[in-house]
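JOB MANIFEST
job_type = single_chain_structure
chain_count = 1
residues = 285
[input]
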Amino acid sequence: MKIIAIANQKGGVGKTTTAINLSTCLAVAGARVLLLDLDPQGNASSGLGHRAAEGQSLYSVLTGDDPLEGKIQTTRFENLSIIPAQMELAGCEVELVRSANHLVRLREVLEPLKRERRFDYLLIDCPPSLGILMTSALAAADGLLIPMQCEYFGLEGLARIVDIHDQIATSGINPSVTLEGILMTMYDGRTSHCRAVVEEVRRAFADLVYPINIPRSIAVAESQSFEKALLEYDPHGKASQAYKQIAEIFLSRQDPTAAPASAPIPADRSVPTAEALPPPAGVPI
């Protein structure tokens, strides 16, 4: 089982949207997927129609009171299971920091599940913060997937999350965690600014940036209000089709026999700054 943390400490970048729709697309493609909602807001859970009752989140598992198995729930997708979130997870920030092993506690909890090989992939929807929950996810993950909004403020968020990834890897907490990829979201190709952001990120990170951008689409917000994945709500829409392509590329990157789908990170790890981009404009150019 490969663990992928979907993280960006900046909110509103499509992180939860990616967690929901990548997990469903992978499941429909035949992969056995477990989605772990680690965000106390629980939007990934509600986005799939799961309203976690008190005690159903990972909180009591992380504090050592309950086993993990009882938290795993099925979804209406055959190959997709979920561990839902609830606001009680916010208390983990306080509880875990008191323990000496707080950064590796989640990894310890997930290790038996990883050995069982019951699932092919475990996707973690991380909270939009730099707290214990997100750093714990990176300490447990095999890879980090970063959704980034195609706007210049997104560059600041990208720089921070890449720095945190590097700290986790070089500090010895989780030296095996890799940068799985960067996914550009809310893309509007009509604006030169949006195109420039994508170009600069691709220049800095080469093929680690997924070649498919997730377009802006009202269907994304509508699907969330109906608590459905895009494959259910708008299966032929542009955003839904984009996530299907992302899932295909993701799977190809996991296959060691396939041709390499991503290049090594360039030696220059510097993230482009907003000064390198044209100012945002309301009128497409």
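[summary]
Residues 153-170 form the longest helix (18 residues).
Confidence is low (pLDDT under 50) at residues 258-267, 278-285.
exit_status = 0
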